[in-house]
């Protein structure tokens, strides 16, 4: 049976609410129902999915960005490159330039404006995309190199990489509400927001919800550790925005312990919760 | 002036809860900075106080195409390195997607009709909350889907530094963001101590290693707090071993306690639990000792 292609983005706002836990669990569940599944780790600053998915047969592709370098000694010290650069990534000192690669956004503006044709753009590696098998599940991870400032080029490459991958694609997105999260949400047919019933969880899920709704995406909520805090307030918020709650998962110490050890098998009680949530997702995606 | 930032790598390990608990206990005047600007929560746990009007923060620029001048040639769209310029079927002209535009201005080089202008990008808002003469909070809210959050963090820290200069405060405590990217760099740059909160999970340990590499790259001193340590004592041991190998001090180990989220839901800090109060006191003594405060 061919699986229609659908993308589920798991996001949150607040960190530590269970995005990876849910993404990995849903991937396992859909796989057990014989769907073709891709698990995509888009938390490129701190990708942890591989701890649980334990992928094999890894192959990697470097993620490159572009930065300028001097190609010949013809700098006249005019400073037009520095004037043009919006990011202070190139500074003219006498008849040389100093380049700050981590600040460069990769637009070839400085090269274009240099009257002496002294600059050219060259490749620089900022991260890596890794693909592998986790049983029948296809594993793809984006990873930003330590010390790098900007995650978005890695995300752009990652989503290009999986563009034509057919089947159920589960994107494990980063925390927060910045443009990395927006880029991830843009890929989704639906967005599932993981949250916890604390004031932090509520504050952040409101931001994440607004972002998802602004993008015009169908949004759903899951309340994790639902018995530790004020779930009613959380549910009230979701209801006020017409965001259906797919499930409430109480705190289960053995799930926390299994998660801590990188163990995907979270026990029967948890698996039942995942099955309920997966069924609702299938209905929403019409698969 | 001394500065300490609390970061984590992995989200959800307790940065804000620890920062707020410390803030409750600190026995000297302090300026608090909430540097987790796209999910700023510290204000929920710090006492209320008089707040300044939120001020707009501008960071970078975004391109705007004048629809009357545009003739739909598409040169700008072909040139844009970020695919931020799109054709509008209804008008036959081009528009810049402000979320995708990075403000590089490369497109300006290609528009012969000068139809493109750069507008200041409003990235977010910030304000100062004065709880009392000994405690001030500087916080911001990054606009949804914005990038450049490192600049906003840097701005907040500059503001905190100027408050310290003007008043009698000597200490800045920064609640950092998760991850290892630009906003984290801005939050930890030049501080006297980077405190990393970790939980005993392989995920958090992996993130600790990446964050440590990042902080070490900046040549910054680090210390560790292990939160919810009893959820997996094997991994807590691994963290202790990592710390010892790198010569990092573990300030203390906080146990998992269901009362913590209950207290948080009442906008109270874990400091209310006597066992935690003792440990927070210990952590604060450790911090003071390390930074010579």
Q: What would you say this structure looks like, in words?
A:
The complex is a heterodimer of chains A (287) and B (293). Chain A has 287 residues and is an alpha/beta fold. Chain A contains ten helices and eleven strands. Chain A has helices at residues 19-32, 49-53, 80-84, 109-113, 152-161, 179-186, 199-214, 231-240, 253-260, 268-285; strands spanning 6-11, 37-41, 56-70, 90-93, 96-99, 119-134, 137-144, 168-172, 190-195, 219-224, 245-249. Chain A has a nine-stranded mixed β-sheet, sandwiched between helices. In chain A, strands 4-5 form a two-stranded antiparallel ribbon. Chain A is elongated, with a radius of gyration of 22 Å. Chain B has 293 residues and is α/β, with parallel strands linked by helices. Chain B contains eight helices and twelve strands. Chain B has helices at residues 15-25, 75-79, 149-166, 182-188, 202-217, 233-246, 259-265, 274-291; strands at 2-7, 30-34, 50-51, 55-65, 85-88, 93-96, 116-132, 135-142, 171-175, 193-198, 222-226, 249-253. In chain B, strands 1, 2, 3, 4, 7, 8, 9, 10, 11 and 12 form a ten-stranded mixed β-sheet that branches.
């Amino acid at each position: 049976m061919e699986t229609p292609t659908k993308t589920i983005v798991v996001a949150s706002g607040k960190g530590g609410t269970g995005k990876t836990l849910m993404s990995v669990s849903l991937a396992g569940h859909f796989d057990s129902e014989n769907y073709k599944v891709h698990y995509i780790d888009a938390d490129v600053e701190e990708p942890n999915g591989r701890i649980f998915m334990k992928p094999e047969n890894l192959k990697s592709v470097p993620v490159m960005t572009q930065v300028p370098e001097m190609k010949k000694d013809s700098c006249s010290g005019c400073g037009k490159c520095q004037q043009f650069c919006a990011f202070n990534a190139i500074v003219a000192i006498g008849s040389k330039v100093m380049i700050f690669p981590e600040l460069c956004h990769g637009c070839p503006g400085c090269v274009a404006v240099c009257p002496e044709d002294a600059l050219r753009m060259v490749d620089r590696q900022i991260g890596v995309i890794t693909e592998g098998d986790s049983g029948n599940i296809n594993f793809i991870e984006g990873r930003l190199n330590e010390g790098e400032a900007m995650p978005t080029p890695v995300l752009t490459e990652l989503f290009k990489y999986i563009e034509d991958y057919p089947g159920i694609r589960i994107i494990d997105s980063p925390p927060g509400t910045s443009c990395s999260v927006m880029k991830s949400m843009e890929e989704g047919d639906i967005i599932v927001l993981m949250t916890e019933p604390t004031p932090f969880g509520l504050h952040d899920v409101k931001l994440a919800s607004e972002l998802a709704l602004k993008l015009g995406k169908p949004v759903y909520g899951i309340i994790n550790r639902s018995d530790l805090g004020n779930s009613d307030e959380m549910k009230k918020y979701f209801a006020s925005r017409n965001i259906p709650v797919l499930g409430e998962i109480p705190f289960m110490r053995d799930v926390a312990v299994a998660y801590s050890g990188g163990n995907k098998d979270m026990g029967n009680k948890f698996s039942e919760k995942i099955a309920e949530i997966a069924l609702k997702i299938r209905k929403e995606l019409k698969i | 002036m001394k500065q300490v930032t609390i970061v984590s790598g992995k989200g959800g390990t307790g940065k804000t809860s620890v920062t707020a608990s410390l803030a409750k206990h600190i026995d000297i005047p302090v300026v608090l900075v909430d540097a987790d600007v796209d999910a700023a929560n510290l204000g929920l746990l710090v006492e209320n106080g008089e707040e300044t009007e939120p001020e707009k923060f501008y960071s970078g620029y975004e391109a705007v195409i004048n629809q009357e001048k545009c003739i739909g040639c598409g040169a700008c769209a072909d040139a844009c390195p970020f695919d931020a310029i799109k054709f509008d079927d209804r008008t036959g002209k081009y528009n810049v997607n402000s979320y995708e535009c990075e403000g590089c201005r490369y497109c300006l080089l290609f528009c012969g009709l000068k139809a493109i202008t750069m507008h200041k990008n409003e990235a977010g808002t910030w304000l100062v909350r004065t709880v009392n003469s000994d405690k001030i909070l500087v916080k911001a809210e990054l606009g949804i889907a914005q990038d450049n959050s490192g600049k906003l963090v840097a701005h907040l820290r500059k503001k905190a530094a100027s408050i310290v200069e003007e008043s009698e405060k000597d200490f800045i405590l920064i609640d950092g963001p998760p991850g290892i990217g630009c906003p984290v760099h801005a939050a930890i740059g030049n501080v006297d101590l980077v405190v990393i909160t970790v939980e005993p999970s392989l995920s958090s340990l992996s993130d600790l290693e990446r964050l440590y590499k990042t902080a070490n790259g900046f040549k910054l001193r680090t210390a560790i707090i292990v939160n919810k340590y009893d959820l997996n004592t094997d991994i807590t041991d691994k963290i202790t071993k990592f710390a010892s190998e790198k010569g990092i001090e573990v300030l203390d180990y906080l146990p998992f306690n269901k009362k913590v989220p209950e207290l948080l839901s009442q906008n109270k800090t874990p400091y209310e639990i006597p066992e935690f109060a003792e440990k927070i006191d210990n952590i604060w003594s450790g911090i003071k000792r390390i930074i010579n405060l």
